[in-house]
Each structure stands twice: as C-alpha cells, then as structure tokens.
Amino acid sequence: MARIKNYINGNFQNPILDNWLDNYNPSNGEVYGQIPNSSKEDVEKAYTSAKSAFKLWSQTTLEERSRILIKISELLEVNLQRFAEAESLDNGKPLNLAKVVDIPRAASNFRFFGNAITQFASESHESVGHQAINYTLRQSIGVVGCISPWNLPLYLFTWKIAPALAAGNCVIAKPSEVTPMTAYLLGEICNEAGLPEGVLNIVHGLGTTTGQAIIEHPNIKAISFTGGTATGAHIAKVAAPMFKKLSLELGGKNPNIIFADCDYEDMLNTTVRSSFANQGQICLCGSRIFVEASIFEKFKKDFVEKVRQLKVGHPSNDDTNIGALVSKPHLEKVKAYIDIAKNENGTVLCGGNEVSVKGYENGYYLEPTVIEVTSDECRVNQEEIFGPIVTIMPFNTEDEVLEMANNVKYGLSATLWTNDLKRTMKLSNQLQTGIVWVNTWMMRDLRTPFGGVKASGVGREGGFEALRFFTEAKNVCIKY
Ligand code: TXE
C-alpha cells in the first residue's frame, strides 16, 4: 500500500515516531494508502531545515525566486493529468473539475506570485520641513506555517505557499490529513524546479498533533490558515499570546440574492454552479438563496428541474457533475442537516438521499438537495453545512433581504443578481462580507483582496495583501 512521506530538507522521510494514518478513497470508501501522523519531533526537524535555508533564500534575488516559482508552475502544467487524477482520487471531486479548476489554479498561484514579487514595492515618505526621509522596508518574516483544508487541496495549499516563498520566507506546510496526496507530489516538482533544500517543508498528519505542533512552535512567526471557524478560533487562542502574525480564512454561509430584473438564464445556470460546484464544498458557495417574491415560484420550478438533471456519479466519469463527498464523517454531518431541516418545517424540494453508485456502493455520494425554508432563523440557514445542500426562500423588499443576508455569524461572500445600478451600489455597500459578486460568481482576479469579516476570519489573501502579510514592515527614518 502506497505510503506518503514528509518532505523535509528536500528529501522524502518517514515520520520519526513511525505513526501512520489511513487515507481513504471517497469514491469507494476503501483505504488506499497511508500518511504520516507527524509528531512535534518531525515539525522540529522541518523547522531546523527551514531555519538554516532562510539565510540564503531571504537573500536570493527576486529574479531567481521568481524564476523558480514560475518553473514550479510550468511543471504543474506539464503534470496536469497526473495531479488532477491524484486530486480526484483523494478528494472525490470530478476529475474534470480537478483538470479545469484545481490544478490549473495551483499552477496560476505559483505563476502569479512569481510575477507579483518582481512588482512589489515599498513606500517612502518625505517629512517635509523636518529634513528627513522615511523609507519602509518589507522584510521576510523567517519561518512561517501554512495550514490548509481538504475542499480545494492543492489550490488552497499553494495559495498560501506561493506568496510566502515569493516574499523570501521558508515554509512549514501541512495539508489536510483528509487530502494529502497532491501536496506530497508537489515536493517532487519543487526539487525538479530547483527550489533549494529546506525552503519548503511539507509535514503530514492530524490537526491535533501535527497542526498543533506548528501553531505552538515558538519560532514559527506567522500562521496562514484556511479551514473551519472553530479551528480558526483555537489557532487564534494559541498563536495570539505568542504574537504571531495570523491570517485566518474560515467558513461561510453566503447569501445568493436574486432580483426579478436579473438576466434570468445566466442567473439560473450560475446559481446551479454556485450551489453545487465541488459538491457544495467551497467556502464561497451560495448556500442561502433569496429570491424576489414575484419570480419565486418560477425560479423554484426551473431551479429544481435543473438540479434534478445533475448527475451524481464516479469522479472519473466524464458525465459526472457531482462526485463523492470528501469523507464518511463529513457525509454523515451533511446528511444530518436534512433531518434538521425537516424538523424545522423545511420542505425538501429535490434530493435528500444518499446515492448508491453501481460498483462503488460504499462511496460517499449524496443527491444535490434543495430545501425551501420558511424562516431565515432556522439552523440550515444559520450553520455552515459545506455540502450539496442549499435553501431557498422568497423576499419582498431590498431592506428585508439585506437584513436576512447579514443575519448570520459569517461574512465571507455574497452574490447579487440585478441590473439596477442604484440597488447594486447600495447593497454592495451594506452587505457585511469581504467579497460581493454582482451578476457572476467565483470570478477571481488574483490581484484582488480575498477574505471575510465576522466569523469568516481575519486578514486578506491575494495580490499584494498576501505579500504584505508575509513580510514585516520596517520604517527607516533618516535626517539630512
Ligand atoms: O476543518 P479543520 P475540517 C469548514 C466546514 C467543515 C468544517 C470542519 O464547515 O465542515 O470546517 O472541517 C488543521 N492546529 N471548512 O474538520 O479541522 C487540519 O488538520 C492546527 C471550511 O476538515 O478546520 C486541516 O489541515 N491545525 C473551509 C485544517 O486545519 C489544525 C474548508 C482544516 O481543518 C488543528 C474546510 C489544530 N489544532 C472546512 N486542528 C473553508 N473555509 O474553505 C485542525 N487543523
């Protein structure tokens, strides 16, 4: 059985204490490999190698760092098929999705930050009348920790690693223990691209052992984390008293607000995608759909009809729209919300059942599910489900829907469907989220700030925001 290894100091290594975890294939429920459950000792080993690599890497020219990152990007593109197959096998997502979204985006992350670092500039301030000039240095931090989740494994892993490396830091990174495979394969590519030993170290294992060892490490000076809100709160509790820099990208419960004046067909097609892409396991999915009352019945009929056409199937089939959920415990969690909804007077309009895929009967498949709710206060409208379940309910006025949209603890993103300019401006201004999409969804320009407010986290990723996070500003004031 294939064993994934830690990538430390440019080598593939077994965990020091020889502890291993099973790795499951979500499409058939079988164990298909093992991964290290790395201990404090492994993290310390990774830290030692990162620390000794830092001196050289932080002084490596921007052109050279850029060249290596772009080389990693190119190698990911060359290995697209292999990486996409590994991602789909490990996560349960359709192979086609991994091929057009996950792996290309991971390549883009390296290319983007490889280029961005050559354009990153710092400020200078002339103190007029005081004969002084200030200039601000943006210095690499040192050894930083990057911890990522299972829903977009390589995509989110590299979204942190690429800016951290571009800014001259050395990295200890931990992918989710549920989806470790593509992070493991990335090590090979980094070696081939000529990334010096120790600059990137990838340790595998549980959050509570390996992740905990990273966040507790006294000399890992910044933590960039994407994952659940409860984990984010725990990380903040541990890391804040140690004065680590923190970027926390957490959960979402995003409103999708549909007005009668929108471009209906475009809205309908995009809403199917924003509801169920990646089995609904994207923090940006619009899981609360609010529809203006005048088109509610029409929308309900058309939407349900389209959702019923989605094909749940094995991830490697070309015609599969919805693959397997990531794990058995996650499937159980998501399924439980269907009963919760029913107990709260929700009406299941379609879906609601597990799917038995022929030949893969033990896989974690669930029908895409649409639930009509009568109150915005119900649990399925308040809690992050993170699966193929959306709720729909009607609204009458802008103020009413704005109130409901903001009436959750989360604040990651919102989608607005309307052609009314004044309404667009007003609602975009007043929605309590870090991101608003108008007449589109998940359109990403990597230069833009990415992140949430309220329980969706603190800090922004993307563009120069990420490079600012992964550097320390130091002001130098010179009197002349
Ligand atoms: O995430 P965790 P889980 C949401 C979603 C999901 C819920 C829980 O609602 O159902 O979170 O998912 C590491 N110290 N999102 O349990 O545990 C862990 O090993 C350091 C939203 O999978 O937060 C993994 O690498 N690290 C989300 C990473 O944190 C720790 C995407 C995320 O795992 C740790 C995924 C610790 N003590 C889930 N404990 C999004 N925002 O996109 C865990 N980890």
Automatic annotation (TrEMBL):
Keyword NAD attributed = yes
What the entry lists under PROSITE patterns is as follows: ALDEHYDE_DEHYDR_CYS, ALDEHYDE_DEHYDR_GLU
- Keyword annotations of the record: NAD, Oxidoreductase
Q: Aldehyde dehydrogenase domain: which residues?
A: 21-476
Q: Which domain of life is it from?
A: Bacteria
Q: Which residues does the Swiss-Prot or TrEMBL record annotate as the active site?
A: E249
Is S-adenosyl-L-methionine tagged as a keyword? no
Q: Which InterPro entries match?
A: Ald_DH/histidinol_DH, Ald_DH_C, Ald_DH_CS_CYS, Ald_DH_CS_GLU, Ald_DH_N, Aldehyde_DH_dom
Report the sequence similarity comment from the record: Belongs to the aldehyde dehydrogenase family.
Q: What name does this protein carry?
A: Aldehyde dehydrogenase
UniProt lineage: Bacteria, Pseudomonadati, Bacteroidota, Flavobacteriia, Flavobacteriales
